Amino acid sequence: MENLIKKAAEQLAKAKSVVALTGAGVSVESGIPPFRGKGGLWEKIDPMEFAHIDSFMRDPAKVWNILIREMKDIVDKAKPNDAHNGLARLEELGILRTVITQNVDGLHQMAGNTDVIEFHGNFAWQKCLDCNKKTETFRISLDEIPPKCECGGILRPDCVFFGEIINPQHLLRSRKAAYECDIMLVVGTSALVQPAAYIPVTAKESGAVVIEINPESTPLTGSISDYIIKGNAGKVMKAIVSEVERIK
Ligand code: NAD
Ligand code: ZN
Question: What is the best residue among 101, 189, 213, 216 to mutate for testing ligand 1's pocket, by most ligand atoms within 8 Å of CB?
Answer without folding.
Answer: 189
